[in-house]
Amino acid sequence: MAAHVLCLALFLLQLLVLLVGSSGENVVGTRWAVLIAGSNGYENYRHTGEDFLAVLLGDNSTLTGSGSGKVVNSGPDDHIFVYYTDHGGAGVLGMPSGESLYAKDLVQTLEKKHAAGGAYKSLVFYVEACESGSIFEGLLPADINVYATTASGAAEDSLAAYCPGGEVGPSPPPGFDTCLGDLYSVAWMEDSDNNQSLYSFIGTNPANDNATSIDQLSFVSGGRVNQRVADLVYFWHKYRNSGDDAERTEARERLLQVVARRSQVDNSVELIGSLLFGSDDQGSKVLNAIRPAGQPLVDDWDCLKSFVRTYEGHCGPLGQYGIKHMRAFANICNAGITAEDMALVAAHSETQY
Question: Largest Cα–Cα distance of the chain, in whole Å?
Fold first, then answer.
């Protein structure tokens, strides 16, 4: 594992040396920006869920991106390591393009790869995302030689790390107003410096035991924040620390815009719950119910996809923040709500928010 991390570091170092050597300028004090895995990145794909599954399956015939065409063309003696990091919600992993990747589709792809025979000897899957434990809980078979570890349990958020303004825990260098990593990824990469064995920190042990969930406008006094609010940190610190009035005003406006959109999503989902299940907190209880450990998030994954599309068709995209409500849509499916009723309440919510 450490060798792979070292290879990435050496690649970036070589790139930096090439850039410095070609410029001929004095680079002392220069802040270097390195873009990794952007949509126009080095031999990269457009980051859709379909492409990710095709790459994992070893099927280059269905790739839709503009990348290199490389896939995981593995054999019976190969050990596969998959490291996935993005925003997440119950039962889904965020993707930069297109719909979120649903847990059922991912696990079915792993099953298909195993069923093909001789596709791999073992596969290790590291996932950094909020509620990432829900991707495998109740779904991953025990007999396909896949070991998965996640940044968080099925019903907890993960944590961003190296965030500005911290008094406890590492913070980024002065002038950086955003979080530079996430606690899970930083932990396993640092762990790989000293250990060759698999990183086995799962759920709340130990990464998420050192901070609690926070309100979206309350930033912890430490180098770590809830991933759900990590994107607000930048605007908050820009607003708080900027000496330029125009920049400060812009940061404030952007922050208020993001918070307003989050409130709109939260309120519309809450209204849907009230319309379907009644007021007096009953709707909230149904939407936020957590199934016993070992059970999958939802009984009918097609229903979940359909209801999310219905909501987004009326109320707009959930976005990387809104997928925190995936459990609510799953519980609506589990409660047996019909597609017609879901369409009616989504349409009503659209008129209110």
Answer: 69
Same-domain pairing of 203 and 278: no
28 within domain boundaries? no
Contact between residue 141 and residue 111 where contact means Cβ atoms under 8 Å apart: yes
**Residues with Cβ < 8 Å from 218, sequence gap 6 or more?**
none
Token pair recorded at residue 155:
């019903």
* Residues acting as catalytic residues: 87, 130
Q: What are phi and psi of 144, to 5 degrees?
A: -115, 10
Residue 75 is part of which domain span?
2-23+34-228
Mean per-residue pLDDT of the chain: 81
**H-helix or E-strand spanning residue 148:** strand 146-150
pLDDT in tens, 301-328: 999 999 999 999 999 999 999 999 999 9
Q: Looking at the 3D structure of the chain, how many domains does it have? A: 2
Confidence of residue 23 (pLDDT cuts 50, 70, 90): very low
Under 8 Å between Cβ of 154 and 137:
yes
The phi-psi region of residue 75 (left if phi > 0; otherwise alpha if psi is between -120 and 50; otherwise beta) is: beta
* CA dist., res. 268 & res. 345, Å (int): 10
- Sheet architecture: strand order including 122-128: 79-85, 122-128, 146-150
The pTM for the full model equals 0.82
177/267 same-domain check = no
